[in-house]
Amino acid sequence: MNSAKRQEIFLRLQAANPHPTTELEYHSAFELLVAVILSAQATDVSVNAATRQLFPIANTPQGLLDLGEDKLRDYIQRIGLYKTKARHIIQTCRILLEKHGEAVPQTREALETLPGVGRKTANVVLNTAFGQPTIAVDTHIFRVSNRTGLAPGKTMLEVEKKLLKVVPDQFKHDAHHWLILHGRYICQARKPRCGMCRIVDLCDYSNKEI
Ligand code: SF4
């Protein structure tokens, strides 16, 4: 795919949704961090249902430590891997309290030392809470990047590096959200909705479902 096509893809995604953001609900960097940890292999809808109950009770590292791991589990028990996630969140709260004055760190290195926080989670927090032009590649972005020819790659990391190289600077901050939403609602895994796709004429996929 050439750079003119890439530019046009993002122009159209931007025109349709000028201020995209995550579908996770949050009011602080810490709430976002917890929500993103919870969202691994879970839907944003299920995470929001849990955090709507949890955050009014506890939404700081100290608050969650006071709540305790057992009670935290009760709030998140409908989310996959909830026991592991509860343990990671409590461990993360302890580190934030002891090493970061309760603040969420703003560097990838510091974020990735937190239990339950990998490269993707760090990218989401850096982008969405702190405005950095990172691109967190999830299953949707991986699929869309490969199908369309926007940034083909065999691994998440390969696709991320390619996207960082080829996405025009003016779109870098929001690219992550546009591509996730496009994958979630239009370029779906089993049956892409090519007939409704606003970039159908720019996409290189050879098996379009029209
Ligand atoms: S045309 Fe089809 S395959 Fe290409 S991006 Fe749109 S939905 Fe996905």
Question: What does this protein look like?
Answer:
This protein is 58% helix and 0% strand. The protein has 2 domains: 3-20 and 134-202, Orthogonal Bundle (Endonuclease Iii, domain 2), CATH 1.10.1670; 29-128, Hypothetical protein, domain 2 (Endonuclease III, domain 1), CATH 1.10.340. The two termini are 21 Å apart. With 210 residues, it is mainly alpha-helical. The structure holds iron/sulfur cluster. Residues 147-148, 186-187, 192-194, 197, 199-200, 203, 205, 208 line the site of iron/sulfur cluster.
Write the layout of secondary structure elements.
Blueprint: H1 3-16, H2 29-39, H3 44-54, H4 61-67, H5 69-76, H6 82-99, H7 108-112, H8 119-128, H9 139-148, H10 156-166, H11 169-185
Bound molecules: iron/sulfur cluster (SF4).
The site of iron/sulfur cluster (SF4) has 13 residues, from helix 9.
Write a short abstract of this structure:
By secondary structure, this protein is an all-alpha fold.
Query: Low-confidence spans: pLDDT under 50, at least 5 residues?
Result: none
CATH topology of the largest domain: Endonuclease III, domain 1
- The first-to-last residue Cα distance is 21 Å
The hetero molecules present are:
iron/sulfur cluster
- Which structural category do the helix and sheet elements fall into? mainly alpha
Query: What general form does the structure show?
Result: elongated
The residue-averaged pLDDT reads 96
Counting DSSP E segments of at least 2 residues, the number of strands comes to 0
In CATH, what is the class of the largest domain? Mainly Alpha
What is the helix tally? 11
Beta content: under 5%
